[in-house]
Amino acid sequence: MALSSFKAIPLPVAQLSLAAVLKCGQSFRWSIFAADDTENSVQSSEYRLCLKDRVICLRQTPDTLYYRAVFPDPQPTPALLPERDRETLQWLNDYFQLNVDLVALYREWANKDKVFARFQGRFEGIRILRQDPWETLISYVQFISCEVLAHY
Fold first, then answer.
1. For the domain bounded by 3-147, which CATH number is listed?
2. Residue-wise pLDDT tens digits, 81-133
């Protein structure tokens, strides 16, 4: 699927790295798929999450976060789509805490902590997710279950 079917948020990877954040163990609800951008002949990843009445699909380039919501049938009416789009964008902003300037925080922390200053590049774009409490609990239970099974 082409990126032209997605909405775009100008957001550099230094502010949010999907590859780092969604695979670091904070959440286990995201599915990752290989994605071809047929318009630009680029292979990347698409991250998908079932959220209430929609599936959130995310992709990323070095300077842009792309998103779209897919709804089951019956589809929202054309009159409802703008509201659904606003809900999706609001959820993304809240979930990833996009109002926080991560680059500025890293700079501040690096000025105060010389160890962090040396290693901050390894943590580029890593954010703490603002997950629903239920998602946090289920992620923890799933993690513990995997740890227990690994010992058998």
1. 3.30.310.40
2. 999 999 999 999 999 999 999 999 999 999 999 999 999 888 899 999 998 87
> 26: pLDDT confidence band, cut at 50, 70 and 90?
confident
Q: Residue 54 is encoded by which pair of tokens?
A: 């929609």
* DSSP-assigned letters across all residues of the chain: --GGGSEEEE--TTT--HHHHTTSSS-S--EEEEEEETTTTEEEEEEEEEETTEEEEEEEETTEEEEEEE-PSSPPPTTTHHHHHHHHHHHHHHHTTTTS-HHHHHHHHHHH-HHHHHHGGGGTT-------HHHHHHHHHHHHHHHHHHT-
Model pTM score: 0.83
Domain ranges of the chain: 3-147
Q: How far apart are CA 152 and CA 149, in angstroms?
A: 5
Q: Extract the tokens encoding 136.
A: 């946090």
